[in-house]
């Protein structure tokens, strides 16, 4: 089955739409654009697909009601605009979906909600229950409370992460551009890529940054990064124009599709690699690096004290830490079994030489994931 066929036949789909596709700097929400998007999503839901909608637009939707001429640059004003705009945006979605006999639920996230395992699992359960009840979750970053230190960065990345939280079969990123072009779409001779099978296919792509007048924060660069994140973990991605949402969601015969470049990670391993916050570092020798990164997940070995050369950070047993090679490069991440204050007694020592209460893995193989090289062998359904 091709990547386009997977997108077209997905039973669970994450759809992301950007601010520039829903709003304008001067006019706030463009109701006609939002209604067209909702009609396309509702049609896909009626056809039997569970859809999670990740929508930007809260800050932009708050500009006109607040009399602001452009997106503010200071954090307090952005949060104020988000507070006002989120209400307008959610109400518009609720009204539009109600015309198609669909109920929506608002889900606001910050990175604090997913970097720790317990809130991450709570988010999974909430999404699962909403979808089970036939609700269309509408997701946005909680711009009202998020700070620069705890932001996802952009909603394209958020959508890629949500695709794994909910175990989506595919991800659709809708933009104000029809797809991925090898140059500025307005430039003579620019052509759109039909399918991307890996980073080499993007070597000739030139990506411009968002302009100063934009109401969004992403642009094509953020979509390429999100597509790489999702496809690298086994989720096909379609980048298409929001104006062609009906076509993109109906049969995926639009835009640029990114084929998976790696096998599907389990939800736990994806969380460890991309979402969990690290509380410290364990420094490894060459042998330990090979043990925790080589081969498929089923054959990867646990990290033992003998392969550790040092540690730093203020972590407790059960926290996530980075596993660092001899040259300072992070090679894996994992859940540590000991507190930081216990590590000096463990570093470099063979298991038989440790106190009885310490004779166990420092990081178990089931609780670690490489961040470079290696291969994951988790089944596609594992993230459900």
TrEMBL record:
Q: What class of enzyme is it?
A: transferase
Domain PUA positions? 280-363
| Keyword match Translocase | no
Q: What is its main location?
A: cytoplasm
Protein keywords: Amino-acid biosynthesis, ATP-binding, Cytoplasm, Kinase, Nucleotide-binding, Proline biosynthesis, Transferase
Q: What superkingdom does the record give?
A: Bacteria
Its Enzyme Commission number(s) read 2.7.2.11
Q: Please list the reactions this protein catalyses.
A: L-glutamate + ATP = L-glutamyl 5-phosphate + ADP
Coiled coil residues, start to end: none
* Gene3D superfamilies assigned: Acetylglutamate kinase-like (3.40.1160.10), PUA domain (2.30.130.10)
**Could you tell me where this protein is found in the cell?**
Cytoplasm
For region Disordered, the annotated ranges are: 352-384
| Function according to Swiss-Prot or TrEMBL | Catalyzes the transfer of a phosphate group to glutamate to form L-glutamate 5-phosphate.
HAMAP family, per database record:
ProB
The protein's name in its UniProt record: Glutamate 5-kinase
Q: Which organism is it from?
A: Actinomycetospora endophytica
> What taxonomic lineage is listed for the species of origin?
Bacteria, Bacillati, Actinomycetota, Actinomycetes, Pseudonocardiales
The gene from which this protein is expressed is proB
């Amino acid at each position: 089955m091709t990547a386009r066929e997977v997108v077209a036949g997905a039973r669970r789909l994450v759809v992301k739409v950007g601010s520039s596709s829903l709003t304008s700097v001067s006019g706030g929400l463009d109701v006609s654009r939002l209604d067209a998007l909702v009609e396309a999503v509702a049609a896909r839901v009626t056809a039997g697909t569970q859809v999670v909608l990740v929508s930007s637009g809260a800050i932009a939707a708050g500009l006109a009601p607040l009399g602001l001429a452009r997106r503010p640059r200071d954090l307090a004003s952005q949060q104020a605009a988000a507070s006002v705009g989120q209400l307008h945006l959610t109400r518009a979605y609720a009204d539009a979906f109600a015309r198609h006999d669909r109920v929506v639920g608002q889900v606001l996230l910050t990175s604090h909600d997913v970097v720790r395992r317990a809130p991450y699992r709570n988010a999974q359960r909430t999404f699962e229950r909403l979808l089970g009840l036939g609700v269309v979750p509408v997701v946005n970053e909680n711009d009202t409370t998020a700070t620069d230190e705890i932001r996802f960065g952009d909603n394209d990345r958020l959508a890629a992460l949500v695709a794994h939280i909910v175990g989506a079969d595919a991800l659709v990123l809708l933009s104000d551009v029809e797809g991925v072009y090898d140059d500025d779409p307005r430039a003579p001779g620019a052509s759109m890529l039909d399918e991307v099978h890996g980073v080499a296919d993007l070597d000739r792509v030139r990506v411009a940054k968002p302009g100063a007048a934009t109401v969004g924060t992403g642009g094509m660069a953020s979509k390429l990064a999100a597509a790489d994140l999702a496809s690298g973990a086994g989720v096909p991605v379609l980048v298409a124009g929001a104006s062609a949402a009906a076509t993109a969601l109906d049969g995926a015969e639009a835009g640029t599709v990114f084929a998976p470049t790696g096998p599907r990670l389990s939800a736990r391993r994806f969380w460890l690699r991309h979402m969990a916050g690290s509380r410290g570092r364990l420094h490894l020798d060459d042998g330990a690096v090979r043990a925790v990164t080589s081969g498929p997940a089923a054959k990867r070995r646990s990290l033992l004290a003998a392969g550790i050369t040092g540690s730093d950070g203020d972590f407790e047993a059960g926290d996530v830490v980075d596993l660092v090679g001899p040259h300072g490069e992070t090679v894996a991440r994992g859940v540590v079994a000991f507190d930081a204050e216990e590590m000096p007694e463990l570093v470099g020592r063979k298991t038989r030489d440790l106190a009885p209460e310490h004779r166990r893995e420092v990081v178990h193989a089931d609780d670690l994931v490489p961040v470079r090289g290696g291969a994951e062998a988790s089944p596609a359904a594992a993230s459900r």
